[in-house]
Amino acid sequence: MPKRFRLTRRFPVAMTEDGYRKLRKFAREAGLDEGEALSFLFEHFDSVTDQENLTHRLRLFNAELEARKK
Question: Can you tell which superkingdom this protein's organism belongs to (predicted)?
């Protein structure tokens, strides 16, 4: 039986403009709203990411994070 899709969790999210644009584009192409797209991405996180690339990109992002906050 499929899981019931309930949008009961709400949380404040800070996103870059680039990140939000890509989320909106992905959601639009997939026929989802932004919340549904995020749910999909996080429910299937391991299968939609490449672990080696993720680790590398995360290191780069963390190195730039403080500068982005200013």
Answer: Bacteria
Dist CA 33 CA 7 (whole Å): 12
| Cut 0.90: pTM above it | no
Rounded Cα gap, residues 43 and 29, in angstroms: 18
For the chain, what is the largest distance between any 2 Cα atoms, rounded to a whole number of angstroms?
A: 47
Tokens of residue 24, six digits? 């909106």
Residue whose C-alpha is closest to residue 26's, from 40, 45, 14, 15: 40
Calculate mean pLDDT across residues 20-47: 94
